[in-house]
Fold this protein.
Amino acid sequence: MIKYGNILDGKKLSDQIKLDLAKLVQDKNIVDKVGLAVVLVGDDPASHIYVNNKVKACQKIGIKSYRYHLASDTPEYEVLNLIDNLNCDNNIHGILVQLPLPLHLNPQTVINHINSSKDVDGLCQQNVFRLIKGYDCLKPCTPQGIMKLIELANLDLSGKHAVVVGRSDLVGKPISQILLQANCTVTTCHSFTKDLASITKLADILVVAVGKKHLITTQHIKKGAIVIDVGINKVDGKVYGDVDFENVKFIASYITPVPGGVGPMTIATLMSNVLKAAGYLSMKD
């Protein structure tokens, strides 16, 4: 008998992952011997918050963080020169460029400049290619976090129909690839999809990453589906997901809240990626 409304608690799981990583760092006696460089260009308030959260996570785990804050009008060649230096620095095992970048900087040019072995966001061309081919690589953090949450449902994914709403490079495209490699049948929906509900209602696993408050309602959900809400929408000072959580939870078997679902997992999996890049965790972990 299916029990509905099970909450996939990303805060609780991320806290446990970070505790496990901190223990690994202590056991291997590598406190402050693994380094993460975070490059922030400009003064976007949200980006500053995200960077601060990443630095705090490093401190909790025992990873040494190096923060590089550049002015918003920094020319692209200076950003690339900094990345060149970080690529060659043996104290730096992971490099992260906080997005979004100022408009005069090409984000793909900047990201592709990061050595793929240090690209802890998993967004450079080499890592994207490896992900598509199913090779070991540093995978994007949010999709990894999504998979960790889905694992809490103890479900055999083989043959399950996964529907991903959204096709961004950060979430939609990589999670579709990862679900495909888990032997799911994967459908990707986007802004040009006709009759969205007719497709999402077929999903055993529904991942929504669009950025539109309550895009997904009860009419979009198959009874007993696992629903993963990646959306964060601030309206009148309150945070909402892409899914109408309060109503959908009575139909879904498992569902992530917003906040407290996917968000905390992104930083936890980033910390894992830094230790993978340093060689202390397997790419398969």
In short: The first strand starts at residue 6 and ends at 7. The chain has ten helices and eleven strands. The radius of gyration is 19 Å. The chain has two domains: 30-116, 140-263.
